[in-house]
Amino acid sequence: GNTNTPLLTLPFNSNRDSRHNYRTVEQTKLFKNREVCRDVFLYSLRNFYQHVRSFGTTSTFFPHPKEQSVVEDITKECKKLMMETLLDCNILWFVEFFVDLLLQIGLVPLE
C-alpha cells in the first residue's frame, strides 16, 4: 500500500466543526451549507488523486490529452458545484478550510 497518500480530512476543531455552535435557524443553514460544500470539494479532490495515481505519475503535469481531459472535467465539475452551492457568507470559511487542507496535503508528495 501507498504510505504517501494525502489525508483528505482535517482534525476536529470544535469552534469550526461542532454543530452545537450553530443554534439559530440561519446558523444551521450556514453550517449545513458548509458540510455540503466540504463534501463536494473533498469528493472532487479524492477523485483527482485517484486519477493521478491511475495515470502512474507523481506529477500534476499530464502530458497525455486523455489525462489532461479527465483532470479538466474534475476541475470543471468541482467549480460548477461549488459556485452553485457555496453561500456568499461562507466564502471566508471555505478559504480557511482550503488553506488548512492545502497545508496538510502539501506535506505529502504525490506518489
Account of the 3D structure:
The protein is an all-alpha fold and 111 residues long. 63% of the residues lie in helices and 0% in strands. α2 runs antiparallel to α3 (65-85). The longest helix is centred in the middle third of the chain and has 30 residues, at 25-54.
From the spread of the alpha carbons, the general shape counts as elongated
Question: Helical percent range?
Answer: 55-70%
Alpha carbon gap, first and last residue: 11 Å
- Count all strands and give the number: 0
- The biggest beta sheet, please? none
Radius of gyration over all CA atoms, rounded: 16 Å
Strand fraction equals under 5%
Q: What structural class do helix, strand and pairing data support? A: mainly alpha
Contiguous helical run count: 4
- The poorly predicted ranges are none
Mean pLDDT: 78
Question: Which descriptors apply to this entry?
Answer:
111 residues; mainly alpha; 0% strand; 4 helices
Secondary-structure topology with pairs:
Elements: H1 14-17, H2 25-54, H3 65-85, H4 91-105
Tell me briefly what this model is:
This protein has about 110 residues and is mostly helical.
